[in-house]
Amino acid sequence: MTTMDKLYATIINTINDNRMFYGCTGCVLAVSGGSDSMAMLDFFCSNRGLFPFGIVVAHVHHGLRSESDEEQRMVESYCAGRGVAVESIRLGAKEHKPDGISIETYCRQKRYEFFEAVRIKYDYSHIATAHNEDDSIETLLMHIFRGSGSDGAKGIPA
How far apart are CA 45 and CA 31, in angstroms? Predict the structure, then answer.
């Protein structure tokens, strides 16, 4: 069994154990172009037969890094080669962020508003994001540092 086969088996087990796509009518895949989200996209494209629902990719170009243009082209090219629809938005976060809110908070809010708008447009029931173990640990630490009690001191749920 290859490393990719093992990874995919782990993902499939996690999906099944958590009933992640129970009653799913379609799924918006949040794809940034980073390794986590590209791995998720590749997983769905390589295992289409396992999921009897449509997928669409939602890509957000925050306008913060010079690499963002290339990442958007890569996502769109990958999807075009696999027959997956892509919905993209360019935020121009630096220019549009209101005072009194961090750039990270603004981008996260706008990103999830966009994912929800795409979900509604396609009349899909699910949105999938990809995170690695380091992301979950970072989230746990962030919650602790912000003074979360034991109920809130959690990483990213499945």
Answer: 13
Average pLDDT score over the chain = 82
Position 64: which residue type? L
Pinpoint the alpha helices (H) of 20-132. 35-46, 68-82, 93-96, 103-122
C-alpha–C-alpha distance, residues 12 and 28, integer Å? 18
CB 91 within 8 A of CB 60: yes
pLDDT digits (tens, 9 = 90+) for 17-31: 989 899 999 999 999
Confidence of residue 101 (pLDDT cuts 50, 70, 90): confident
- C-alpha closest to that of 47 among 33, 29, 32, 34: 29
Q: Are 41 and 129 in contact (CB under 8 A)?
A: no
